[in-house]
Amino acid sequence: MLDEIPMIRETDIVYIAGQMTGMPMFNYPAFYGAAGLIAKEFNCEVLNPARQPNGLAYDEYMRRAFDDLDRATVIVLLDGWNQSHGATKEFLRAHQRRIRILYWHQVETVLTRKLEKENPLTTKKDNTQK
């Protein structure tokens, strides 16, 4: 069961991948939101490509992404990653390097269960009010 074995461990280095090009604000809210939640809830290092400086050439962004992936033990693919040429390259590199591949919906499901277990009173509906 997913609860017995942590999908992401404190010792993991997690790389976030997803679509940036052509997205409003380069999809920074999704990247920073995912990175923040993963770092907070799994207490691990997160490599967020949105942290890179603006204005670099595409090839430089990809070089930096691959450098990060070479350090990573897990890649988390945000929704829509398969619409991105760069994220597709990152997925293939992760697969070739045998980096554990997780999809955002898997992480979201585990975090939802974890938060419900830790905060049962805030997640159950109050049936006393009408």
Chain-wise SSE layout:
Elements: E1 13-17, H1 28-42, E2 45-47, H2 58-71, E3 74-77, H3 85-96, E4 100-103, H4 104-118, H5 120-123
Parallel strand pairs: 1-2, 1-3, 3-4
Helix pairs in contact: 2-3
Kindly identify the CATH topology: Rossmann fold
Give me the Rg, rounded: 16 Å
The major pleated sheet works out as: 4 strands, parallel
Number of DSSP helical runs: 5
The order of strands across the largest sheet is 2-1-3-4
Strand count: 4
- Number of domains as seen in the coordinates: 1
CATH class value: Alpha Beta
Low-confidence sequence ranges: none
Q: How far is it from the N-terminal to the C-terminal residue, by CA?
A: 37 Å
Helix content, binned percent: 40-55%
Strand-pairing-aware structural class? alpha/beta
Give the ordered list of helices and strands.
Answer: EHEHEHEHH
| Mean pLDDT figure | 91
CATH architecture group name: 3-Layer(aba) Sandwich
Shape: globular
In what range is the share of β-strand residues? Answer: 5-15%
